[in-house]
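The methods section describes the discrete structure representation at length, but only in general terms. Since the whole study asks how a given chain folds, the encoding of that fold should be made plain. An entry of this sort, consisting of the sequence and the corresponding backbone structure tokens, reads as follows:

. . .
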Amino acid sequence: MSQASTWETRVLQAIDESSEELLKLAGLLIQTPSENPEGDCTEIAEVISGHLTQSGVETELFDAGEGRISVVAHRGEKGADDRHLVFTGHHDVVPVGDPNRWDFPPFAGDVVDGWLRGRGASDMKAGLAGLMHAYIVFERLGVPLKGKLSFASVPDEETGGPLGAHWLLEQGVLDGATGGIIAEPAERNHPTIGQKGSNWFRLTIHGTPGHGSLQPLHGVSANLLGARAILALQKLWDMKPTQSEDLKQLIADSKQYAEEREGYGPGIGDVFEHVTINVGKISGGTSTNVVADTCVIEFDTRVPLGLTRDAVNERVREILAEEGIEAEIEFLGFMSEPNWTPPTDPIVEILVDALRDLSAPEAQGVLQWASSDARTFRSHGVPVLQYGPADLKTIHNFNERALVADVVLAAKVYALTALRYLGLAE
């Protein structure tokens, strides 16, 4: 048996033997509230740092302000011809909502009938625990990895804030990284390797107020103009992206996955080839009997690979001009270009192969329609993919949970990928 095979066997066996430790850690993270908003992650950062320190891993805390604290660890050094892999994830979670609508305490962090339960179980504290545990196992066994392995747990992801992954990368903390694994939730056998761009904006439309009894003969209703704008902007769906042949194949595979595995049904895969537009918030007018002087509408549009935010926003302006609607446009929230890591990139090929060896021969990378910190790493030149344990239908929902078996599998995938991506020192 080769040195590499020996270490793979030892590491995977160690994860199996310490699976209860892994689940206990995942439960501890879930039991430590870190809802965003408000987003103060001081306590959860201290818990993560404390656990790693107790396990013999030296950590650093990076405070970007407002309670946005990142936890970072480094192992090894990157030589001229070596690779630098980053294990990363976010430790903030979405709010629990109405706790009375949960079937169990939102921060339970327990295991019942093979399920790890609580807010963050899928998104993404179980995956984060898997990264931490794989890192600890490497340290515990003294695995002689070649190159550099970093761990970075960040805040401010759920609201798309700038004080998490973006801030950390801007500080140069992860300079030299050649690849990354983000423990975001994914279907068991399908890591996500690309995502649509995110383009949120607010339209403010002004009208001319008047007495409501004289409409439509007197005054100009901003609300009516807003309604016309909403209907007209549905034309964004008709924009045609320009896609290469390899990208078309990836989209075809992703469409099949979305329709057959995610349970949305036939047709949902079309989102990968079109601009989607969601009318999220509408407010307008001052009183029922007054012609509305102002209407404010917030839109969430998602941009497919093969288009750009600039192209979509230029089309927005064209459509409004065609309708004769004057509006102020303000961009907000998540803003990113469509982004992806090619299936041929080493980090993708190696993780997918590891997943095939450990779980399913049909494992394959696919696209997603949501946004995450993957966009931030890719914008900084770091190829990444996402893989983490999840019950997808419970993400951002009540009764969030993840299969225990998938939590353990994910930790093994992270470890095996790191071993094969970095290699072993001579």
Remarks:
- The longest strand covers residues 197-206.
